[in-house]
Design brief:
13 helices
Length: 204
């Protein structure tokens, strides 16, 4: 569908919305460059125009997701996150922030906007990434926050903080880490073997 001017484009968009031709609306809105300063406004307006029904349908959802990914691609991270959270796609926002290692931006959302089980998974993803990057001090705290003290022990051992590791063994309920996450950590040590190593080094 060829539309020459912005005024004509908005007239056509309104008419298409009235006619419930949502795919055509999305097609026109998707022509707008994410680097355009008006992109966020246009996207928000487009979503409102599409939101006549009380529940988002597939076309609306895909438009919101694709628009947010364009914003991420244009390095307009706050705009992308705002768009996703305002439209109920909190998990997508968190997962994208974790994917690009923006942990500090993801954490407030993890604390306040996701379910308990999802919160555990997201915190563990951060802990695993930090451990694999060699940031064991930070990883230890995230493992502890998730209740995975096996991971905390591993990090303390890697940091040669044997006294601290012994305190964790004494005070915390330490169990074998969830295998899905344990398998993702470089050179991770099984709990029984790790406890032996910690107690061995504590003798020196």
């Amino acid at each position: 569908m060829l539309v020459d001017t912005n005024a004509e484009k908005w007239f056509v968009i309104r008419q298409l919305c009235y006619a419930n031709r949502e795919k055509d609306v999305v097609g026109l809105l998707n022509d707008i460059n994410p680097d355009d300063p008006r992109f966020m406004f246009v996207s928000a307006l487009g979503i409102m125009l599409l939101a006549d029904s009380q529940k988002k349908n597939e076309v609306q959802s895909e438009f919101i997701k694709s628009t947010s990914m364009k914003l991420f691609g244009a390095n307009r991270i706050p705009d992308a996150v705002t768009l996703l959270t305002l439209t109920g796609f909190d998990k997508i926002a968190v997962e994208k922030l974790l994917e690009i290692n923006l942990f500090n931006s993801a954490l407030p959302m993890i604390r306040c906007r996701v379910e308990k089980q999802d919160k555990y998974c997201y915190v563990m993803k951060i802990a695993v990434k930090k451990a694999n990057d060699g940031n064991y001090a930070s990883a230890a705290a995230f493992f502890a926050s998730a209740g995975e003290y096996h991971g905390t022990l591993f990090c303390l051992w890697k940091l040669n903080l044997i006294t601290d590791a012994l305190v964790v063994l004494e005070k915390a309920e330490v169990k074998e880490m969830n295998s899905d996450f344990a398998s993702q950590i470089n050179n991770f040590v099984a709990l029984d073997e790790l406890v032996k190593l910690i107690k061995k080094y504590s003798l020196f």
